[in-house]
Amino acid sequence: MGDGPGDRISVRERLDAERRDTEARIAALHGDFDAIVEANALVAVDDEHDPEGSSTAFERAHTASLLARARDHLAEVDRALERLERGDYGRCERCREPIPPGRLEVRPAATTCVRCAAGTGR
User: Fold this and answer.
1) Burial class of residue 95 in the structure, from the number of CB atoms within 10 Å of its CB (0-12 exposed, 13-18 middle, 19+ buried)
2) Within 13 Å, how many C-alpha atoms sit on residue 43's CB side?
3) What are the entry keywords (predicted)?
4) Read out DSSP for 93-109?
5) What are phi and psi of 98, to 5 degrees?
6) Which of 34, 45, 76, 115 could cross-link to 109 by cystine, CB 3.0-4.6 Å?
7) How far is it, in rounded angstroms, from Cα 61 to Cα 11?
């Protein structure tokens, strides 16, 4: 990754867009989760004996898992923004070599190069 001001602006824009998308995903998942809980409250569901109960429990757990993953991703994006401010963005945290631009394009919050992520780095 280059170190010019234009590069930093485009990286910031990409990270900001990633942050907005993740926040929107979190809001949508909250809505889904709340709808599942509300639907269960309207119907006396006995997860053990009701044939629909197990699928409802699965939906609730699956949505909670997606929500946790989205929150983790938001934290990763925030840490990437902090690295950008410090001037560390785009360097592998293990070997300190530059992370290839293609990897950062696909995973803007990446902290390691492909070699280190695969466990074959220094």
Assistant:
1) middle
2) 12
3) Metal-binding, Zinc, Zinc-finger
4) TTT-PBPPHHHHHH-TT
5) -65, 140
6) 76
7) 34
CB burial of 1-28 (b: ≥16 within 10 Å; e: otherwise) equals eeeeeeebeebeeebeebbeebeebbee
Q: Which has the closest alpha carbon to 111: 97, 69, 72, 120?
A: 97
Beta partners for 98?
Answer: 91
Q: What CA–CA distance (Å, rounded) separates 46 from 33? A: 18
**pTM, whole model, 2 decimals?**
0.77
44: left (phi over 0), alpha (psi -120 to 50) or beta: beta
pLDDT in tens, the chain (122 residues): 445 545 777 999 999 999 999 999 999 999 999 998 888 777 654 555 555 556 888 999 999 999 999 999 999 999 999 999 999 999 999 999 999 999 998 999 999 999 999 987 55
Spatial neighbors of 120 by CB under 8 A, at least 6 apart, are: none
